[in-house]
Amino acid sequence: MSQKMASTPDPHCFANPGVPFNPEWLADIHINRSAVERRTACLVARRSLTNQWQTAWLLKAISCIDLTTLSGQDTPGRVRRLCTRARAPLPEVLQKALAVESLPLTTGAVCVYHQMVETAVRALEGSTIPVAAVSSGFPAGLSPMETRIAEVTASVAAGAREIDIVITRAHVLNGDWESLYREVRAFRTACATAHMKTILSTGELGDLNNVARASMVAMMAGSDFIKTSTGMESTNATLPVSLVMLRAIRDYYMRTGYRVGFKPAGGITTARAALHYMLLVKEELGDAWLTPARFRFGASSLLGDIERQLSQGNALCPYAGAEAGY
Ligand SMILES: O=C[C@H](O)COP(=O)(O)O
C-alpha cells in the first residue's frame, strides 16, 4: 500500500472528513492470518512492565474507557450511578495511596442506548465527559435505514457528542463495498459534528481480509473511530482482529494524513488484557494514538478489575519485570 501522504490536515482536528470511495485502496489487501496470529502471540508473551509504569498505564487505560451499560435492565438510576463512577472512577483513598490525588481522572465517555442519552447528559452536566450513544439499530443494524438514521439524529439532538453506529454485515459478506460506503456516509451526515465510531462487528465478517477492507471503507466514508464489536457477537474484540484494524488505520493515515481512532470492545474485562491492547496500539501506531481522542475501550466491567489491580499494587506478576516500561 502507498506510504505517501496525500495531504497535511490540521493536526489538532480529530475529525476525519472522509474521502471519495476508492476501490483501488481495497484491491491489494491480503491478510496473512498466521503471521497476524504469530505477531500478537509474541506480543503477549514477551513484554514486562515495572509496577510504577504499570500504574501509569492503568490510569491511562481508565481515561480511555467508554464506561458502558447496554442492558435490557438499564434504568435511569443505573445510568446515573454509572455516570457518578465515570466522574470519579477510583475511590479518593486509592488515588491518595497512589499519590495521584490531584489527577483529574475520569473515564473517556459514558456509553448508553439512545433511550438513556438524556439521563446521562444531565448526570454528567458540569463535567467534560461526553455521552456516547449506540444508535442506528444497535446491535444487528437490520432496522429500516430511515429508522436508523432517525435514531442517530435523535441521539445527537438529545446531547450525545459521540455516536457508535453499526453496519449492515451483509454488505461486507457480499463484497458490496460501495453500499457499505454509502451507508456509513449517510450516518456521517446524520452525526453532524458528533464523533462517529463505526462498529464493524468483526466476529460476523467472515475473515480478516473482510475486516481490513471494511475498516478501510468505514474510514473512507468518514468514521472518526473504527470499533471492533458491539459486545453482543459470539466473538468480540481479539488481538489479531485489532492488529488488522490498526494496520488499516496506519495505511489510511499514510494515504490521507487523518488519524482515525481505534476502539476494541466486548469481552475486555481484565487489566492485563487492557495492557495488551495498549501495547499493540503503541507498537503499531505510536504514542500519538494513546490518548482518549484516538483510543477507547468499550467495556462494562474493565474498570472494576483495574481498580482491584491498582489496590493490590503488583498483582500483574508477568508485567512486574525488569523493563522500565513499554
Ligand atoms: O461497546 C461496548 C461493549 O458492548 C461492552 O462489552 P462488555 O460488556 O463485554 O464489556
Automatic annotation (TrEMBL):
GO terms for molecular function: deoxyribose-phosphate aldolase activity. Belongs to the DeoC/FbaB aldolase family. DeoC type 2 subfamily. The gene is deoC. Pfam families: DeoC (PF01791). It catalyses: 2-deoxy-D-ribose 5-phosphate = D-glyceraldehyde 3-phosphate + acetaldehyde. It comes from Microbulbifer harenosus. Its EC number is 4.1.2.4. Gene3D superfamilies: Aldolase class I (3.20.20.70). Keywords: Lyase, Schiff base. This is Deoxyribose-phosphate aldolase. It comes from the Bacteria. Pathway: Carbohydrate degradation; 2-deoxy-D-ribose 1-phosphate degradation; D-glyceraldehyde 3-phosphate and acetaldehyde from 2-deoxy-alpha-D-ribose 1-phosphate: step 2/2.
